[in-house]
Specification:
This protein is of the alpha+beta class and 120 residues long. Helix content is 36%, strand content 21%. The strands form two sheets. It has a three-stranded mixed β-sheet, with no helix packed on it. A hairpin with a 2-residue loop joins strand 1 and strand 2. It is flat, with a radius of gyration of 17 Å. It starts with a helix and ends with a helix.
Length: 120
Amino acid sequence: MRMTSQRKKILEILHQHDLPMTCDDIHIMIQDDKLNLSTVYRSLEKFYEDHQVFKTIINQKQYYYTGHHHHFLVCNGCEKMIPVGCHIEGKEKAIGKPYGFQVTHHDMTLYGYCEHCQTH
């Protein structure tokens, strides 16, 4: 994939943020009239295919992020997202084996209430 200035901007935005972002989030932050939303989406999907970014679905929205693979705790009250380490990485094959299932990747989001929302 050719690394255009627009694609560089997309990756820069993702690297600057710890939490995952939607295509819309990234598109708004770039503030470039020449960059349309579909270009952001296609670039993110290509980055995902090339293992440059991770992708997850939270509350029926697709999010992208960089760094390492992790999972998220999402508050049902304030929608705060908390990244947490992956505790099953490396165990996927053993989990799928008894079922004759070949695991290629996994994604997990846990929903509940953060400390703040529990007390209010």
